[in-house]
Amino acid sequence: MTANVTEILVLYYSRHGATADMARQVCRGVESVQGVQARLRTVPPVSADCEKTADDIPANGPLYVSHDDLKECAGLVLGSPTRFGNMAAPLKYFLDGTSGQWMSGTLSGKPAGVFTSTSSLHGGQETTLLSMMLPLMHHGMLMVGLPYTEPALLSTRGGGTPYGASHLAGPESNLPLSDDEAALCRALGKRVAEIARRLA
User: Fold this and answer.
1) 146 falls within a domain
2) 63, 41 in Cβ contact below 8 A?
3) Rounded mean pLDDT of 38-48?
4) Cα Rg of the chain (Å, integer)
5) Which of 22, 29, 97, 184 lies in the 20 to 30 Å Cα band around 53?
6) Taking the model in full, what pTM does it have?
7) What total number of domains does the chain contain?
8) What is the domain extent for residue 22?
9) Residues 6+ apart with CB under 8 A from 122
10) Which pLDDT tens digit goes with each residue over 101-131?
């Protein structure tokens, strides 16, 4: 972080691009708050081949997250597609490797939010959001949801929950974010950024 600038880590895993689109909207919300910047990061896929390792830098898109990103951020917004009502394995694999940060309290007292994308309307959006909250609560983070004072939470016909932003990607995982879904992503980023700024 540079002097007088608060950074929010927006960390996600995306397979077909919907969660990545959400992450970019979250970043827009973060950066709508004066004095706050978004740091966009992703995680490499998990391979079933024990000998295969990912390149240190992805071929395209944002950089892979490091433990330093966790240390340097003033808040975290975490995103994943749903996998049987749970976060995707690559994101959980990264979180499972943060015991050192848990021991040192790196994330304790920082605000956090979560977002997800599913192929079906009742495909486990809320349980996926809750699954991402659990390790963040163990880290001592302060969970930030979406209140019903956000108009899009009442008008959405797709994703959107009080637990965090969500998106209905459709059976082919190719539906774009609706206006309401995008608005809720931005609202989540803005709320985490505003709280981090107040805490700072």
Assistant:
1) yes
2) yes
3) 91
4) 16
5) 22
6) 0.94
7) 1
8) 6-44+56-199
9) none
10) 999 999 999 999 999 999 998 899 999 999 9
